[in-house]
Structure formats: structure tokens, C-alpha cells
Amino acid sequence: MDSSCDDDVDIIITNVIPIPGPVGPTGVAGSATNTGATGPTGDTGHAGPTGHIGATGITGPTGPTGQTGNRGPTGIPGSATNTGATGPMGHTGYTGPTGPVGPTGLTGSAGQIGSTGFTGPTGMTGPAGSADNTGATGHTGATGITGPTGPTGHTGATGDAGLTGPTGHTGATGITGPTGIGQTGPTGSAGITGPTGPSVSTSGTMFIYWNSGFNLANNNFLQYGTQTTTERQSYVIATKSMTLRNMFVKLTAAGAANPGSGSRTFTIRVNGVNTLITVTITGADVTGNDTVNTVNVNAFDFISVLHTAVLPDNTATGVVSVEIA
């Protein structure tokens, strides 16, 4: 308290934490049988004022751990309320050196061989070698001996002559060339009139004709010297507008062994369709004609002849003609 102050000031110090002192040596343990009588517990004194907490001092270096002394006798149990402060924890001692490695144990028996693993993907193809590194060409081997020539084979028999194809249509007359240029000569004197000749028709007759070439077959189309089951192979083409009429047919043998027992029919067709021009030969007859029916055709129309048969007993070839006008 400063005596120079004009007023009296009371200073109260609280929360003073006592600083524990060093632990004293353990006393000699008394005899366990000489425990004195426990004295009366004294009254608890008034708590003194707590002083200011002083600054923490610098921790000094830890001294070396001393040897552990002999355990002293157990002292008289102190009061439970007078527990002294816990002393500082000592440093952890150094780790001792690693002991020597023990002997290696016996090798165990080999385990079973595992299954083969999956084959990995094929690696990429390496780059092609240089074309300049071609190896040297090997030697050419010697030419082998030529074997003897084999004998000449026999000449095959000459085949039969093929059937003569139908005669082609006469081509159109060519264009008349231009009249030559020249001076007209003098008119000659009139000659003597000759006698009147006989009368001659100026209108010619034209025909289309077919020949089966070999024995007639049912549902065949006639050509010239042969026949076919395919109609378009037998077509004759019209060169202008004209009329077909007067169909005549002749067989090389009787139509049947007995009159009336069989028949053959020949029909003119235009563009694949039957017309009214038809001839039927029956029994032992060998000829027939149709001079009643006609049919008109135009340029580029297809004309054909179809043969059909009903139970003919004899074989025969056939020739057919039709007039065009």
C-alpha cells in the first residue's frame, strides 16, 4: 500500500494458485502395527486470498534419468485432500538395437500350376522391309528333256449335213439413180410396126411356203426344212399390207392307217393369234386346202403356221403354201 495516496485503498488478491514445491523423499515406512489413533479432523480454515498468477518460467533441460532406487517402505497414508502435485513425465527411453535375423524356414512344397491365361491380342504388324533388300535370284534350273510326241488320234466321222434354212425374202428394189446429163440425140425414123403378140397377164402370183423337214409333231410350228415348239423362231415378217388366201397342204404319207381314225390340222396365225385360214386332213387323205377364208396383214406383222394332231396312226412330213395378194 502506497502511503502517499490520499485515500485508503483496500487491495484484495483472489485466485492465487499455489506453486507446488518439489516432492520430498519418501519417509521410512512405519510399522503397520503401530498405527496411532486418528486425531480429530480440524476445522477447515478460511481460504486465503488468491494471488496473481506469475509468469511461467523457462523450462530447463531435462536431466538424465537416474537409476531406479530401491522401493522404500510405504509411508503413512496422507489425507485424501492433501494430494501433491503430479510430477513431470520423464522422456521415453531409447529403442534398443534390432536383434539378429533368425534362420530361414524350410521351403514349402510347390503349388499346383494354374490354368493358362488368355492369349493377349496380336501385336501390330511391323513395317514392311525395304524393297531394296531383295535377295539374289536363284539359278535357273536346266530345261527338262522333251517327251516323245503322242500318236495322232483317229479322225472322227463326218457329221450329217445340216438342214437347209428357208430362203430369205427378196430385198427391196434399190433407188433408181439420177438420169445422166447429155444432149438428146436426133429422133430416128419410125420403124416398121411388128405383128401383135399374144395377150399376157401382168399380175404375178406370190406365195409363202413352209416344210416340216421331218415327221410332224403335235403343237409344233413349221419352218422351212425344220419345225420348233417356239413360235417366234418360225416367224415370217410381212413387208407391206397384203391379203393371205388360198392355203394348200400336202403330206408325204397318209394321215392314218384307216380313213377317219385320225387327223392333222394346219392353221395360219398372225402375231401369235389363230386366223380363220385352216386346213384339216383326215383318214387316208394326203392333201387339203382352204380357198374360202382370207386375212389381211400389215407391214411388220408376224406370220406363222401351227400343226396340231388328233390320234394319227402314221408318221408324215408336211408342206404348206399360202398365196399373198
Task: Annotate the secondary structure layout.
Layout lengths: L205 E6 L8 E3 L4 E2 L7 E2 L4 E10 L11 E8 L2 E10 L4 E4 L4 E3 L4 E9 L7 E7 L1
Antiparallel strand pairs: 1-11, 2-3, 2-10, 4-10, 5-8, 5-9, 5-11, 6-7, 6-10
The class by helix and strand makeup works out as mainly beta
Give the DSSP E fraction (strand runs of 2 or more residues).
15-25%
**Would you identify the regions where 5 or more consecutive residues have pLDDT less than 50?**
1-5, 197-202, 255-259
Taking the sheet with the most strands, its summary is: 6 strands, antiparallel
H/E series? EEEEEEEEEEE
Gyration radius, rounded:
75 Å
Percent range for helical residues?
under 10%
Please tell me the overall pLDDT. Answer: 75
Helical stretch tally: 0
What is the tally of beta strands?
11
Global shape: rod-shaped
Distance between the termini: 172 Å
Jot down its keywords.
20% strand; 325 residues; 0% helix; single chain; six-stranded antiparallel beta sheet; five-stranded antiparallel beta sheet; mainly beta
Report on this structure.
With about 325 residues, the chain is mainly β. It is about 0% helix and about 20% strand. It contains no helices and 11 strands. It has strands at about 205-210, 220, 225-230, 235, 240-250, 265-270, 275-280, 285-290, 295, 300-310, 320-325. Strands 2, 3, 4, 6, 7 and 10 form a 6-stranded antiparallel beta sheet that branches. Strand 2 and strand 3 form a beta hairpin. The model is unreliable at about 1-5, about 195-200 and about 255-260 (pLDDT under 50).
